[in-house]
Amino acid sequence: MNKKNYSFGRLRSITTILALTAAFAAMPLTASAAISADYTLFLHTDGTLHENTADGADITAAMNTAGAAVTGSAGLGVAESLGCQFIQEVLAETAAIECLEPSANVIIELGGEDAKITYLGSVPEQRMNGTCAGGTGAFIDQMATLLGTDAAGLDQLASRHTTLYPIASRCGVFAKSDLQPLLNDGAAHEDLAASIFQAVATQTIAGLACGRKVLGKVALLGGPLYFLEQLREAFARAFAGQDVELVCPEHAQLAVAFGAALTATGQPLALDVLLERASQIEPNRASSAAMRPLFLNQTERSAFEKRHQAANVAFGQAKQVKGACFLGIDAGSTTIKAVLLDQDQRIVYQHYAPSGGDPVGAAARIVSEARQALGPGAIIAHSCVTGYGEALIRAALRVDLGEVETVAHYRAAVHLNPQVTSVIDIGGQDMKYLAIKDGVIDSVAVNEACSSGCGSFLQTFAQSLDLPIEAFVQAALASFNPPDLGSRCTVFMNSAVKQAQKEGASVGDIAAGLSYAVVRNALYKVIKLRQAGQLGGQVVVQGGTFLNDAVLRAFELITGLEVTRPNIAGLMGAFGAALLAQGVGFRSCAISMRYQCDLSLD
Predict the structure, then answer these.
(1) What pairing do the DSSP bridges indicate for beta strands 244-249 and 335-341?
(2) pTM summary value
């Protein structure tokens, strides 16, 4: 890969006034300057670039007047505050490449939370990420934290890799799920670091190009691609064997500001006036709107808690059970759940644990544990399995019945509320919505590439705030000023959380705001709800995430509904499967056999 060098002189430095995502640019009569949060970059009319970091010295002796321009995602507001020109990013970026790499055909730019591909031509075509920031700089930071390092450390680790693993980069939560089992299995951090970079390259090319070929000379811009050599190498591997030449200008992290300096046409301003205006810009303290507290007083909270104690499934003692019992297994993507019911539909055995990548082995252990938990007068008469591993477990253990998880969840919901009109299930990484009409499932919606409304989303933020999830929930319930954090992906939400913290939001406020965000994502992105009336008047919510009272309360406040949340919300799939097993009209062919106590796959 070619990396181009430019002549950088030295000027005295200037204090950076605002740390914004906007890039500042100025075009004087004899020179132009681009000011970012960390750099001041000057382009003299002789074509040389001069860089100096922000350490406080004055440059007004070198440059007295300038016509200022601003670009970047936060640039429009900054331009208005400074009273100067705003230049759209694609124009600034294109202008920079026309000067620095005039033969380039395509630009790939990665920033902190955005990613862009620009196809150059008579009319440039730019494609960028929308609601998901997977595969951007902030995503890389998240993954580096998971490996106990930073972005620079991740780059050093990747330089020593020997193996690449498939890692999801579409969503930070999904990527974490790919990495965690590999970490548990002892995969080398060097290999995981390189795999993360490879996932970013793949996501950028496949996700943004959307099938359009990337050919010819490709200019790589933005901080992640400039500072991380191994990320550039990942792009080189992704384009291997194709008609692609990758180039990265020496100061690619400043290219957009450089382009703004080239295209600025504003009226000249005295630099001391420009800097004075910049120093007077105040952060927008009211940018995070406040949401209603989850509870206004203890009376509201007590009524809420009393109401949700009503939807309880009864429990019994396994050793005291006589006669037939019914086993339901829910084999999820990462966890496996099980419920054993007696003839009175009381739970006498339950199981909820990670499957460890071996759902069949985990199911075999469940069967053995359930049988050993029972007294001598009880048998497992019938069994049913549902979830991702349904077909595999049914074949391996000769389970009586296999059922799709939507039916199992519906069966559990209708058992608790025969008039149910909607079932909403939020798990660690997935969401399901079942619309019920005339007693049957009318439609189904599930999340696809984003898990920002799922339990792992909250778990990630609780960890980032150094709180166990239980303390996180209690802090949310006690909050009086939850900020409106929107309903965006985990990476974007990081910025909203940081802004709220700057505005003085407490940990509890942020926890409550995130609880609102989870619910809004489920309602408006997955269900695509237009009004609460679409849910009907009888809603059952389930999944482990709804055991979080903050999420449950946020759901009720947003929809204006009082919903049913069972005490076994995380086991409803397995509970529904056990109820279905109870309806099986024949003796179990495998689960109740004598050898089940010693069932294993060793």
Answers:
(1) unpaired
(2) 0.64
The radius of gyration of the chain from alpha carbons, rounded to an integer in Å, stands at 29
Place of tokens 């939001």: 505
Distance, CA of 489 to CA of 491 (rounded, Å): 6
For residue 501, how many other CB atoms are within 10 A of its CB?
Answer: 16
Burial 430-441 (b: 16+ CB within 10 A, else e): bbbbbbbeeeee
Q: How far is it, in rounded angstroms, from Cα 231 to Cα 203?
A: 12
Per-residue confidence band for 263, with pLDDT thresholds at 50, 70 and 90:
confident
Token pair of 348 as six digits: 């006498």
Residue 147, φ and ψ in degrees, nearest 5: -95, 5
Structure confidence at residue 28 (pLDDT):
33
Sheet holding 335-341, edge to edge: 347-354, 335-341, 323-331, 378-387, 401-402
Amino acid identity of 91? L
* Cβ atoms of residues 381 and 583 within 8 Å: no
At 469, which helix (H) or strand (E)?
Answer: helix 469-477
For the CA atoms of 433, 436, 441, 442, what is the dihedral angle to 10 degrees?
A: -90
Indicate if the pLDDT at residue 218 is higher than 90. yes
Q: Which residues contact 344 (CB under 8 A, 6 or more apart)?
A: 314, 316
What is the distance between the alpha carbons of residues 149 and 454, in angstroms, rounded to a whole number? Answer: 26
Which amino acid is residue 544, in one-letter code?
Answer: G
Q: Return d(Cα 482, Cα 514) in angstroms, integer.
A: 9
CA atoms within 13 A on the CB side of 380: 32
Tokens 């009082």, located at residue:
562
Contact residues for 69 (Cβ-Cβ < 8 A; gap 6+):
25, 26, 27, 79, 84, 85, 86, 87, 260, 261, 263, 264, 265, 266
What does the CA dihedral 427, 430, 431, 437 come to, rounded to 10 degrees? Answer: -100
- Cα distance between residue 388 and residue 543, in whole Å: 15
Q: What residues does 424 pair with on adjacent strands?
A: 433, 541
Could you read off the pLDDT of 47-93 as tens digits, one per residue? 444 444 443 344 444 456 666 788 877 677 778 878 888 888 888 88
Lowest mean pLDDT among 86-100, 301-315, 512-526: 512-526
Q: What is the pLDDT of residues 127-174, one digit of tens each?
A: 877 655 556 777 788 788 778 888 999 999 999 999 999 886 555 555
Within 447-544, residue ranges assigned H as helices are 455-464, 469-477, 490-502, 507-521
The helix/strand/coil state of 515 is helix
Tokens of 477: 């319930």
Instruction: Residue 562: count other Cβ atoms within 10 Å of its Cβ.
Output: 12
Residue 320 has pLDDT above 70, yes or no: yes
Give, to the nearest 10 degrees, the angle between helix 189-209 and helix 137-146: 160
> Alpha helices of 83-150 — where are they, by DSSP H?
89-100, 137-146
pLDDT at 282: 64
